[in-house]
Every structure is written in structure tokens, then in C-alpha cells.
Amino acid sequence: MMQGMSPVSRTVTPALNLPETFAFSQSSLQAYEDCPRRFWLAYAEQLPWPAVEAEPVSEHEQLMRLGSTFHLLVQRAQIGLDPELLGAGLEPPLGDWFNAYLHHRPTDLPSDFFEVERILSMPFGVAATPLNGSGHAMAQTTPIYRLAAKYDLIAADQTGRVVIIDWKTARKRTDPANLRQRLQTIVYPYVLVEASAKLPWGPVQPEQVEMRYWFTAAPGQPVVFRYDRAQHEANHERLHHLLEEILAGQREVDFPTVYDTEINRKRFCSFCVYRSRCNRGVTAGNLDELADAEDFFAVDADTALEFTLDDVTELAF
């Protein structure tokens, strides 16, 4: 762990009643940053989805299933299963996606270590413990949450070079400027560096980390972000500031909806399952009008939680 960059450097008061098993993720933090009310409904209240995200519904659901299948195929190919057998009989668009992967998969990755579908986590925020009921805080503090990330692929070598790969099946390549601001681009390298002391090739310094987004729609044009110490320090501040804001709220009124503008309705509300509750329209957005696939808001339909403590115990430190 980097000196001065301990994830428990901020003391916060956990007033918000989140589930005991809750772990923060890029999805939950992005939900808050896009629209605080969305975070409240999905993660604090765990409200069942009252509306579909996009039209046509069947096409959206099919694309989600195909995306999951593509990730599974790539996972199996990365661990050494025969790609020809994996790709036999695949129909479009899945077959096209997998062929794009076979012809354009990264060939310059570190090769000493491969982690596929790996979950890493770290302490996120601390609570001060009163001393003998005196009301004064002890010097020791206790982590109250964890920040978790699930990586499609982590490739590393003995020298410490690490490349994070995230496979994307969006209809088109996302604008790199938009990707740079997304919480996934912030959380993934940050958690990796902070959790790296427990990894076989760790500890890792920020300058050794690279993150790539690989698109089936543009397999020869991955979006690459190099990481460094300045970014790591800035990410530390941004993430802990978000945590402080979230935990400062206690009621629904403390989590306002995003400003009601035409742009926000088109970008956020049209593809949000809670839009009818917020009086932001009853008609789902059309997939053909979606400018950025990252604007979809999706959490686990059963629990509204992307990660729980059961998922992240493997690196509980």
C-alpha cells in the first residue's frame, strides 16, 4: 500500500442505513454521481425495478444476455480452452464478437500472471470508536465499508507491469473523454494498487498500471489509459469525497434527483428504471438513441447490490 495513501485516512460517520453486507463498487458510486436519488432507491431502499430501461425490451434483454455469454467465452479462451471449439456454431452477433476477439485480442500483455473475473476489495472509509463512553474518539479507527471491483482480466509480470482489460460489447466505441471520467476508470486502477500487496506480483505502484477498454464494435481501437501517482492521489480524494457525501445523507430528501433538463432526461432518465417514480416520463428510451452504453443503469435485479461482503472476503485486509 502506498505511503500516505491509506484507504482509511478519512473518518466518516455512517448515518446512512445501508445493508450490513453492502460493498461499494464503481456501479453504485456512478449511480450516486449521475443521480443521488438513483443511488438511494437502488442501494439504500433496494426498490424493485418498476420500469424497463430501454425499448425494445426484448432486444435490450437479449443484448445483455449475449454480453454475458461473450464474457464467458473470452474467459474460457483466456484460460487456455480451444478457441475454435468455443466459437463453433456461434450465431451473429455473438459469433462476430468472438471472431473480432480472436483476430484482435491484445498480444502485448504481460504473461507471467493472468487473473480472470477476479474480485479485489479494500477498506473504504472508517468510523472512530468512542473510548469508554467518554464521547472522545480513540486513535484507532475501524473500516466501515469496502470498495470492490470485478476485473474481466488482469495481466501482470514479475517486474510489476500490470494491464487491466475490460471487454465491452456496446454497439459502438465509447468516446475516450467520457470513459476517462467514468467511475470504472477511477475505481479499477485505484483498487488494484491499494489491494496489490496481497497479490502474487505485488505490491504495485501506480506507474506500473495500465487500463484498456476493448470494444467488439472497434476491436482494433482499444481505449488505453496509463496510470500514475498523481492520478492515484486525485482518485483517492474523489472517491473518499463521494463516500463522505453519500454517508452524510439519512433520508430520501437528502438524495435529490438530477436536475430536470432536456439533456438529463435524455441521457439519464430515459434509461433509468425509476423514471416514473420521479415523474421523468413513462416511456423507455430507444436503444438506437443511446449515445453512450455506459449510461445504462443496471444492478442485480434480485438484491439491487452488485457486491456483498460474501463476494469480497477473498482479499479482506
Describe this structure in words.
It is built from ten helices and seven strands. The N and C termini lie close together (11 Å). About 5% of the residues have low confidence. It has one domain. The radius of gyration is 20 Å and the shape is globular. The chain has 317 residues and is an alpha/beta fold.
The value of Rg in angstroms is: 20 Å
In the sheet with the most strands, the strands line up as 2-3-4-5-6
Summarize the main sheet: 5 strands, mixed
Helix and strand string, N-terminal first?
HHEHHHEEEHHEEHHEH
Outline type: globular
Counted up, domains total: 1
In terms of DSSP E residues, the strand content is 15-25%
Percentage of residues in helical conformation = 25-40%
Mean pLDDT: 82
* Total helical elements: 10
Poorly predicted residue ranges: 132-140, 300-305
Structural class: alpha/beta
Topology overview:
Elements: H1 26-34, H2 36-44, E1 54-55, H3 57-78, H4 83-87, H5 94-104, E2 113-130, E3 137-156, E4 162-168, H6 176-181, H7 183-195, E5 209-215, E6 218-226, H8 229-248, H9 262-267, E7 285-286, H10 309-312
Parallel strand pairs: 1-7, 4-5
Antiparallel strand pairs: 2-3, 3-4, 5-6
Helix pairs in contact: 1-2, 1-7, 3-5, 7-8
Structure, briefly:
The protein is built from ten helices and seven strands. With 317 residues, it is an alpha/beta fold. It has a five-stranded mixed β-sheet, sandwiched between helices.
Structure keywords:
317 residues, alpha/beta, 5-stranded mixed β-sheet, 10 helices
